[in-house]
Amino acid sequence: MTPLKAYVLGFAWADGAINSSLNYLAFVSRDDLTALRDVFYGPDRPVYRRKSGTYQLNVTSSRIVQELVELGFTPQKSKQGHPHIPLGLEQYFLLGLLDGDGCIYSTSKVLRVWYCGNAETMCLVRDVAQNLTGVCFTMRASSTASPHIQGRVLKNNHVCQTLDLRSSQQSQTFLSWLYTAVEGIPFFQRKYQKFLDFQRLYQTEINCFLCAVPVSRNGTTVRYCPECRLLLRRLSNRRSDHEKRNSYRSPFVDLLTAEEKERIDLNALASLG
Ligand SMILES: [Zn+2]
């Protein structure tokens, strides 16, 4: 077993299917499978593009399928059963599984990771991740016909359980571990890029949204300098006092002192309420 094999195994558990005669393995994915094809064959073997836009790679080999069966694969694996995750190479297996049946969601403020799959597999993944990285995935049933996560519909019809990391910090810890020492692994850049985008925004300095002084984010998701954070607290207090007296909710800009007005960007403040 090698890191590459462990990755392919994880990916195959998610997006690969073996037939009942056990001589054929097919991968189907939204992402280009050319790099994966090169793991099995030379460039003369085609990767098919389906009408729906998904890619398909067929591997005809009873030897490979036999090996997969010994590692827990069955033609019904999407509904039941669990894989044998190679000891010491768990990271690569979980990376492959993420490329197949996982998602990374990121904005400048939020980083999330989730996996979906059958209950036995999800329990195993949750335990492995917790033992090796300390992060704690939340597991829940997604029994409806088209389950949603973060507003996205999961298209996998066999999904019965979802694992979800609820904080950006834990997602950061988990993904940093997942993407360590991955040279030579044909993982999907599309997903990795989401992690990189978040890290870039997360770690760099930003300008305070209200007064434009540089603020170091230091792994947090702050938008304001300490002075402006204090100002915003004061403004909400002033506003509620004002509202009690006048039964009218005034915009923040109307509650500023002359000195405060000098310091901050009034348009930016107006956009906050
Ligand atoms: Zn500021």
Brief descriptors of the model:
binds zinc ion, 273 residues, four-stranded antiparallel β-sheet, elongated, single chain
Question: What is the fold's blueprint, element by element?
Answer:
Blueprint (H helix, E strand, L loop, with lengths): L2 H13 E3 L5 E6 L4 H7 L7 E2 L5 E6 L1 H9 L19 H12 E5 L4 E7 L1 H15 L4 E4 L6 E2 L2 E2 L7 E4 L3 H11 L10 H15 L1 E3 L6 E3 L9 H21 L11 H6 L2 H5 L3
Antiparallel strand pairs: 1-2, 2-4, 3-4, 5-6, 6-10, 7-10, 8-9, 11-12
Helix pairs in contact: 1-4
Bound molecules: zinc ion.
Q: Summed up, what is this model?
A:
This protein is of the alpha+beta class and 273 residues long. The protein has helices spanning 3-15, 34-40, 62-70, 90-101, 119-133, 168-178, 189-203, 226-246, 258-263, 266-270, and strands at 16-18, 24-29, 48-49, 55-60, 102-106, 111-117, 138-141, 148-149, 152-153, 161-164, 205-207, 214-216.
Give a structural overview:
The protein has 273 residues and is an alpha+beta fold. It has ten helices and twelve strands. The chain has helices at residues 3-15, 34-40, 62-70, 90-101, 119-133, 168-178, 189-203, 226-246, 258-263, 266-270; strands spanning 16-18, 24-29, 48-49, 55-60, 102-106, 111-117, 138-141, 148-149, 152-153, 161-164, 205-207, 214-216. The strands form four sheets. The chain has a four-stranded antiparallel beta sheet. Strands 5-6-10-7 form a four-stranded antiparallel beta sheet. Strands 8-9 form a two-stranded antiparallel sheet. Helix 1 (3-15) packs parallel to helix 4 (90-101). The protein is elongated. The model has no long low-confidence stretch (mean pLDDT 88).
